Amino acid sequence: MKVLSFCAAVLHQTKGVRNLLAFRMLQAGAWFAPAPIPANLLTAVANNIPSTGNKLRKWTKRLKLNFCRSVCFASQIWMSEEDPALLLVKLGLARKSNREPGCWIQFHPIAQTFAKRKDGLVAAKATVQGIRKTGNPLAKSDHLWASAFLVFGFKSEPPLVQLKPIDTVLFIRKQLCL
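Structure for TIR domain, NB-ARC domain containing, as requested:
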């Protein structure tokens, strides 16, 4: 437990976009299925998690990040999605999977449980929104089922994520009616 707390503190307290993104990836990865997750999906979901802190600092970071993305090459942006995922692998919170081409990671179940208890439901809602917005649901069917259980509940467990009615209809239409 202390090792997990230390790893989360290292990710949260160190300054840098890569470490903050890795911390958000840990938060979001807790709510995915226990299957390999593509780094680009994890990055997209992690970017949907709202951050806490100074709003002026967030605004300047976004401007810097958008400027860097417009100047950098596409291959460098692709590598920047892998870097936070590989940082999680180096810390031992996840392992790299060779399921498909690209960077896929799988979180350890203990790390998932720790992140669920530590961070609450904000990351769960971001996970559902990220799964809803991504394309090709057949490639990520395990994670689609995990998001469906978050929205609708399972057996006697209540739903954890409350969507607006229109978002629920869109979720059902796009994801569950294949």
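The radius of gyration is 16 Å.
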